[in-house]
Amino acid sequence: MGSLNACDILDASLAGTGCLEHPLDAEEFRRHGHKMIDYIADYYNSVDKYPVRSQVEPGYLRRLLPETAPNQPETVDRIIGDVTSHIIPGITHWMSPNHYAYFPSSGSTASFLGEMLSAGFNVVGFNWMSSPAATELESVVMDWLAKMLCLPAQFHFSGGGGGVLQGTTCEAILCTLAAARDRAIARGSDISRLVVYGSDQTHCSLKKAAQIVGIPTSNFRAVSTRFSDSFALTGASLDRAVVADEAAGLVPLFVCATVGTTSSTAVDRLLEIGEVASRHKMWMHIDAAYAGSACICPEFRHFIDGVELADSFSFNAHKWFFNNLDCCCLWVKNPAALVAALSTDPEYLKNKATESRQVVDYKDWQIALSRRFRALKMWTVIRCHGVANLRKFLRGHVRLAKVFEGLVRLDRRFEVVVPRYFSTVCFRLRPVRAVRTGDEEVEEEIASGLNRRLLESVNAEGRIYMTHAVVGGVYVIRFAAGGTLTEERHVRTAWLVIKEHAEKLIDDVDILNW
Ligand SMILES: *Cc1c(COP(=O)(O)O)cnc(C)c1O
């Protein structure tokens, strides 16, 4: 190209190429939009044809794509073609009915439609003025949800509290921890003395948040849980840790209790923890990322009994509440504490509405300034299904988990390791008694190895996908039902797949004569 640089050669004529001629042309949008929706609908129809866990090797995509960006425009058709040939092989299919890994990512048509509106309007609703509907709809749906969950009045806007849609639980915990920290500092505490508590089952987002808000690493406590408590954090064990810290001159700041832990869906003892928290004047947050949604069903509501003692409560609507990523619902009793820690007031955002103090400016309830109009998808999801059907869907997933649990329990070679509360079953092949050495530790080690091989064998084949956890030193396989497309026939097939792989493995083990 001689002395020309890349920018000089961009100006080719676009006429007649089938390319998008303008960045926002309504008619082209209509045409390509229909095509894209058709493509996604076809994907949903055929998603179970792909291996659930992507089978590609690291770096696969760099080898397939050009090293530099195209100078000339390309057609949407070509791009869609490359999605099929290059991108889909590298997708792990979270929307597959055979995806049982991690926790579900329960997308839905209603949420998708709401997302389309949000992407279409493309507003940047940092404060009320920047798009009043974005703020007001969010406040309304957060109050709706608070009522669906029977959260105490102090979490509703009318009761002095309020809810906000964050992107993720990590952000929700970070914001509440920052609020707690600043409240403590305002009361005269020194940040180097503040202590944060969770259990050894608490999600790593608490530790990350503590690091970010400046809690010394040595002041982070992961209180031990026990198999005999089903890995729940108890008030007594929390109290022991808090009392010891106070005796050492430290200041208890924040405790994060979990409803539905990530490894095994354990439920911390909220009432006991709340009592300890209030006695020691700590901020109590409840992280119900996965299981919170189930609590809209009266029969599961007891899992959050004690929420009245908490300062804040969050759950991920993108996990098990039919909202596409991302959507974390956070409520606080005292929004002023959040605002004190997170607000900014630059001249270029000053406006009459804010000055009137009649409005919520959600930029002061979160980390970033800019924010998406997330409430549209939640509003669409709730309205398209109604609370009655949302409950029905959640109950259906719990029923699927019960079916799976029943199948595991019928097979003597397997065991369910911890109680199943929601739609996730933690199970494993039992330690192999035939090769009993008399040494339980060796047996456990062999069992862990066997279950690890079982899981890898199942996932490598790709008909279903599950992941693992280690609780109390025991390697467990997690079966998380709750995918939006999963039906009972999928669950029954999944069990057959697991048994097939297990039998092959057990045969191999016999040949090895362990
Ligand atoms: C998934 C999960 C999180 C993290 O959620 P993000 O939205 O990805 O930050 C936190 N806590 C629990 C209990 C979880 O299961």
UniProtKB/TrEMBL annotation:
Protein name, per record: Tyrosine/DOPA decarboxylase 2
State its role.
Catalyzes the decarboxylation of L-tyrosine to tyramine, which is converted to norbelladine, a precursor to all Amaryllidaceae alkaloids such as galanthamine, lycorine and haemanthamine, and including haemanthamine- and crinamine-type alkaloids, promising anticancer agents.
Q: Name one GO molecular function term.
A: pyridoxal phosphate binding
Q: Which organism is it from?
A: Platanthera zijinensis
One matching Pfam family is Pyridoxal_deC
InterPro entries recorded for this chain? Aromatic_deC, PyrdxlP-dep_de-COase, PyrdxlP-dep_Trfase, PyrdxlP-dep_Trfase_major, PyrdxlP-dep_Trfase_small, Pyridoxal-P_BS
Where on the chain is N6-(pyridoxal phosphate)lysine found, per UniProt? K319
Its required cofactor(s), as named, are: pyridoxal 5'-phosphate
Q: Which gene encodes it?
A: TYDC2
Q: Which GO terms describe its biological process?
A: alkaloid metabolic process; amino acid metabolic process; carboxylic acid metabolic process; phenol-containing compound biosynthetic process; primary amino compound biosynthetic process
Q: Which SUPFAM superfamilies match?
A: PLP-dependent transferases
Does the record carry Repeat as a key word? yes
The pathway to which it is assigned is: Alkaloid biosynthesis
> What are the record keywords, sorted?
Alkaloid metabolism, Decarboxylase, Lyase, Pyridoxal phosphate, Repeat
Q: Which family does it belong to?
A: Belongs to the group II decarboxylase family.
What this protein catalyses is: L-tyrosine + H(+) = tyramine + CO2
